[in-house]
C-alpha cells in the first residue's frame, strides 16, 4: 500500500500520454494533468479508507471501476471542451461528475460526503489548470512540488518522486488524512 504505488498503478492503467493512434484522447492540452489529479484523488481516497475512521467514518470500497468511470467521465468532458475549441478545463463539470457519478454515489454518511467534496474541490479547481498550483498538495508533508503545466514526462517524474510510504508512525494515519 501507499500513495506512490497507487498513483503509479493508476498511471500505468491510464497513461498520461495519449495513444499515438490518432485518437481524440490527446485533444485537450490539460489531459495529462487531469489524469494525474485523478490518480492522486483515487490514491488519497483509498488512503483515507485505509485509516478509517480517521479519514472517513468508515471504509468505502473505491475500486478500479470507480477510477475507470472517473477517467471516462473526465475524458468525455475534456473532449467536449476541446471540440468546442475551449482551452480551459470544465472544472465545475468534472467536480460534479466525480461527486455524483464516480465516487460520491458510494458515500452514505453526510460528514464523509462533505470530506469528499472538500478533497475534490481542492484538487479540481481553476488554479489546477495547466500552469496553476494545487492547494491540496500543500497539506501533504514531504511531497515534491507539483510541476507547472501538463508535460507528461514532468508529471511522471513527480509521481515517481512521491514518498514510498506515508511519514506516519506504524498504524497511524498520515496527518493529511
Automatic annotation (TrEMBL):
Biological process annotations from GO: microtubule-based movement
Listed GO MF terms: dynein intermediate chain binding; dynein light intermediate chain binding
GO cellular component, one term: dynein complex
UniProt domain Dynein heavy chain AAA lid: residue ranges: 36-167
PANTHER family noted in UniProt: DYNEIN HEAVY CHAIN, DYNEIN HEAVY CHAIN, CYTOPLASMIC
UniProt-recorded name of the protein: Dynein heavy chain AAA lid domain-containing protein
